[in-house]
Every structure is written in structure tokens, then in C-alpha cells.
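pinned: reference chain
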Amino acid sequence: MSRKKYAVIFRLFQIAPILALLHILIFKFGVSTQTYQEFHYPIYGIYLFFLLLSVAILLFLIRIKETKPEQIGFVFLVLISIQFALSYVFLMPVLERDGTSVYIEKINFFVIFIIFLTLEVFLTSRLLNDKPEK
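pinned: its C-alpha cells
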């Protein structure tokens, strides 16, 4: 396994836990325990879901870079669309509920979605700018 080849995935595993820990600490000290206990999904569960999707996307993009590097942009758009659809399916139980804690959970979910989308765009741009190994 080439370290340079998978550098974007190593970077994801450096950044995501730090963001998750900060997010959990914000909720621990900024949101009541009762509200957090009413969430359908715990914060770490949502982070794990998006981390797995991001790793799958980046692995797929690394494979595409080896075979057809000119197609990375199109493949990225398709994979992000699939990620959006899977996220919607994952969020369905929350969307069917009502209440104040549900509103906070929806906002929380979309904040995490935006964080990982930003990370994926940043890491994909790094993948595009890396020189191919010879």
C-alpha cells in the first residue's frame, strides 16, 4: 500500500475524529441532556455513517484516478449524488417525527453533512492535484 496513494484517506482519518470530538463537546456543554437523549441517532453514529461513505468515495476515486483520471470530476458528482440519496434514506426516521429535539437533530445532521461534503471536495481537489506515481 503506497502511503502517497492513500494520503487523502489518512488525512480524512486525521480530521474527522477531531471534528467529531469538538461537535460532541459542543453538544455536551451547549444542549440539554434530555434533548440529546431524544435524538434518533447519536452524533458519533452520524459521523461514523459519513466517515464510511467518505472513505468509500475516496477509495473509488483513487481507483478511477489510476484507470481514467480524466473522469474523476464526473465520477465525484455521481458519487456525491448517491451519498445525498443515502443520507436522505438514513434521515427518514428523523424526518417523520416532530418536536424541538427533532428540529435540532435535523440541523445537526445537515451540519455534519456539510462538514463531510466540504472535506470530500477538499480531499478530492488534493487527489486531482497530486502528480501520478511512475
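why pinned: The helical segments are 7-30, 33-37, 43-67, 72-95, 100-129. The mean pLDDT is 88.
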